Amino acid sequence: MLEGLEFYGRHGLYAAETQLGARFRIDAELFYPYSGIEDDLSLAVNYAEVYASVQAEVTQQRYDLIETLADRLAHRILAEQPLVTRIVLRVHKPHAPLPGIFGNVYTELTLERA
């Protein structure tokens, strides 16, 4: 699991969000069979590669909805990491432009390889 990956992105519906940007936090639970695995990175998920993919998607792309960002991230990780059979991905937007006091806004998506 990769938890609390933080990046600056420009996702959102409002002009200020796309101009100023904000901090986004990503959690990715990656499921794959590794019981009895040899101590060899080529037989496991490379978390550095997953980190780089998440960073690229959050910082180089722009989406109106965090749900779309979550979908693109989950599909990208499944495409790039053939060992991953299931992913639970959360996109947190802790500074969403909402009235009132709140701790966090996030979306969660679960995908399984077909």
Please sum up the structure shown.
The chain has 114 residues and is an alpha+beta fold.
Helix tally?
3
The tally of beta strands, per DSSP, is 4
Query: What CATH architecture do you see?
Result: 2-Layer Sandwich
Which band does the percent of strand residues land in?
Answer: 25-35%
Silhouette: elongated
| Strand line-up across the major sheet | 1-2-3-4
The CATH homologous superfamily = GTP cyclohydrolase I, C-terminal domain/NADPH-dependent 7-cyano-7-deazaguanine reductase, N-terminal domain
- Rg measurement, Å: 15 Å
The topology string of helices and strands comes to EHEHHEE
Helix content: 25-40%
Largest sheet: 4 strands, antiparallel
Using the coordinates shown, work out and report the CATH topology: GTP Cyclohydrolase I, domain 2
Rounded mean pLDDT is 94
How many domain regions? 1
SS-based structural class? alpha+beta
CATH class categorisation: Alpha Beta
- pLDDT under 50 segments (min length 5)? none
